[in-house]
Q: What sequence folds into this?
């Protein structure tokens, strides 16, 4: 009779240990997934594009046409971007820092570089 209450305790202990083991593996997997997100392309920080011109075009379609017109050839007082007298680096500078009434569009230099590469293809 004396030893009997020990059995439920043993069961609880084993189940508890199993839970701890399982949960810590779940935690490790989640941590790995979170780190992948930080390093991979899913995160904020873009480090490089496979095809900068295509990526730049996509971003320009999202960020620039609102002011510069659907084909970027200007709209209202917003200048034409297809007939620029600027170098690639000057376009990067405008995208990063803004100019006059135009605000800075991103502080990510890789994105700014890709957009500028696309803009330069419109000015060839
Ligand atoms: C909120 C409206 C707005 C948005 C959005 C915008 N621009 Fe502009 N942009 C302007 C205005 C206004 C000017 C003229 C600024 C000035 O010189 O006074 C300008 C000027 C420029 C110039 C310089 C043109 C020159 O001849 O000096 C470049 C290059 C340019 N924009 C590129 C872009 C790109 C690329 C994007 C998208 C990433 C973009 N802009 C998004 C309003 C905008």
A:
């Amino acid at each position: 009779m004396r030893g009997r209450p020990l059995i439920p305790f043993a069961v609880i202990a084993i189940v508890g240990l199993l839970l701890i083991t399982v949960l810590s593996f779940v935690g490790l997997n989640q941590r790995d997934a979170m780190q992948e997100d930080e390093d991979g392309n899913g995160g904020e920080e873009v480090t490089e594009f496979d095809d900068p011109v295509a990526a730049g075009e996509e971003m320009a379609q999202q960020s620039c046409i609102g002011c510069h017109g659907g084909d970027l050839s200007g709209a209202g007082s917003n200048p034409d971007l297809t007939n620029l007298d600027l170098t690639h680096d000057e376009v990067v500078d405008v995208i990063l820092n803004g100019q006059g009434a135009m605000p800075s569009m991103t502080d990510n230099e890789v994105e700014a570089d890709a957009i500028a590469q696309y803009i330069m293809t419109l000015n060839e």
Observations:
- The pocket of heme C is lined by residues 60, 63-64, 66-68, 78-79, 81, 84, 86, 91, 94-95, 99-102, 105, 115, 119 (CB under 6 Å).
- The radius of gyration is 27 Å.
- The mean pLDDT is 89.
